[in-house]
Structure formats: structure tokens, C-alpha cells
Amino acid sequence: MHDAQLILPAPAKLNLMLHILGRRADGYHELQTLFQFLDHGDQLGFRARSDGQIRLHSEIAGVPHDDNLIVRAARRLQSESSCTQGADIWLEKRLPMGGGIGGGSSDAATTLLGLNHLWRLQRDEESLAALGLALGADVPVFVRGRAAFAEGVGEKLVAVDIEEPWYLVVAPQVSVSTAEIFSDPELTRNTPAITVRTVLAQGGRNDCQSVVEKRYPEVRNALILLNNFVSARLTGTGGCVFGSFPSKVEADKVAAQLPASLPGFVAKGSNVSMLHRTLQNLI
């Protein structure tokens, strides 16, 4: 990382609710979700190369170099922009894999925005979000960097301004497969659509939660434990669970009472991602 020219965060996100309306002909699910960013995440470092090579210097167990979303994002941006430069990339991983808080998607978005800046491509957010969508449904969310109500497969976004509480996020030691949850026959797939106004007034639930709890006892146990202190929910398809607090002090107090076997972190919710705040300061 010390060789990097540019160091940027790849923030986590929370799905504050997730309703599944149905399954489309292409196998994807129609959903509605409200998400917010956290001031906590992975960190990526970038250095431009003149030989066109893309090299990720940080290994991730079980993920071959060329399959990593970071490498795929860099190569896609490179080819779509006919850019002859390459990049050395370093990753400091802090977010759990399969946690439902956006680790891989956020890393890919930070790569797109970071290299767009480093290579001076001047691509706009719209075109970077479109590139991101080809890498994963969640990537455009991080490219745009605004808390939002999302519909479709998660790509139709309406920015929202919501409270920014402190969150305690707990990460049970499991990696939940999104594909497995979405293909579970018991998953609720017929929740009626609601408006963003209703969501902001009444909140919502996570339709994936009961399926994840049934398949992953570690997640169920974490929810039971956290529910003793605060109303706890699952984010995305899991496995991380979270509760919100009016202050850091109160979130820290509960975090201190959790068993050492249940890792977690406390972070502030944010309607503008810390990646975008960092890039804003560079311009």
C-alpha cells in the first residue's frame, strides 16, 4: 500500500429493508430495498502502470486473481475506455465476505472511480454505473454513493435523505451464498410493492431473514443475542446483522457486551459514501 499514488475507501452498506416482489423471466428477482452507507470499509491503493498490466497485489483466499471483481472492474474500464495504462492495486480487506454489506461490490466500484480519476478518463457517474451493473447488481449503488431506495434488480435508484444513526454490525462466522438464498423455495416472493414514501414513514422488513435464519443457525443466534439490546435485523441476504443507536457511546456499550466469538464493529451511517467524500476532496 505504501507504493500507492491514490488510497481510497470502499465503504460498507446496510440494507435497512429488503422486499422481494417476484422472480423475473431471466431468473433475477424484482426487489425493493432502502440502503445507507457506513463510515467503515475496505481500503484500496492504486498506482498507474505504463505497460497496460492490471495487477492486484493482495490475495484473497479462494478467489483466483483474474476472477476478483477488482481486477474485472479494472479490465472492463480499461477496455471500454481504450486506455493503454495499467495499474498496481492493493487491497486491505476489513469487510467479511458473504456478509451482505457489499464488500466485493464496493471494492469494484472504488476501482472504477479510482482508476477513472488516476487514468484521467473523465467518465461520468452514469457510464461508470452502467459498467458496474455488468459486474454485479449492487455495484452501481456504490458508484453513485448516495443512500437510496432501490427497485428493479436494485439498479433503479432514488436518492433519499434519512437519519444517520450509529450502527452496531455483527458478523457471524459464516459466508452466506446470495444465489442459495434467492433460489430457496421457501423465500417470500410476493410482497406487494410499496412507495418510497411509505418505506420512509413505516420502514419495512427483510424478506430473506427467515430463510437465512433457518439455513444458518449462527445468524439466528446472533439475531437473538442482539435483540436483547436493540431491534436487530439482517442486512441484504446476510450474514451480518445490525441494530441502530442514537450515539456511538450507546452502540459501543452493547458491542462491549457481545462474546469474543462474535466479531463486529460500530460505525456511523452516512447518506453520502465516504468514497465520494474522499474523491470530492481530491478535485
Mean pLDDT: 94
According to CATH, what is the topology? Ribosomal Protein S5, domain 2
Oligomer: single chain
Largest sheet: 10 strands, mixed
Number of domain units: 1
Taken as a percent bin, the fraction of beta residues is 25-35%
From the alpha-carbon coordinates, what is the Rg to the nearest angstrom? 19 Å
**What does the overall shape look like?**
globular
According to DSSP, the number of beta strands is 10
The level-1 CATH class: Alpha Beta
Question: What's the helix-strand series?
Answer: EEEHEHHHEEEHHHHEEHEH
User: Roughly what percent helix?
Assistant: 25-40%
Low-confidence stretches: none
Distance between the ends: 22 Å
What's the gist of this structure?
By secondary structure, the protein is α+β, with helices and mostly antiparallel strands. It contains ten helices and ten strands.
Task: Describe the fold and architecture.
This protein is of the alpha+beta class and 283 residues long. It has a single domain (1-283), classed as Ribosomal Protein S5, domain 2 (2-Layer Sandwich). The chain is 32% helix and 27% strand. It has helices at 69-80, 103-118, 125-133, 139-144, 178-182, 196-202, 209-215, 217-227, 248-255, 274-282, and strands spanning 6-23, 29-49, 54-56, 86-92, 148-151, 156-159, 166-170, 233-234, 241-245, 264-270. Strands 1, 2, 3, 4, 5, 6, 7, 8, 9 and 10 form a ten-stranded mixed β-sheet that branches. α1 (69-80) packs parallel to α2, α2 (103-118) packs across α3 (125-133) and α7 packs across α8 (217-227). The radius of gyration is 19 Å and the shape is globular. The two termini are 22 Å apart. The relative contact order is 0.20.
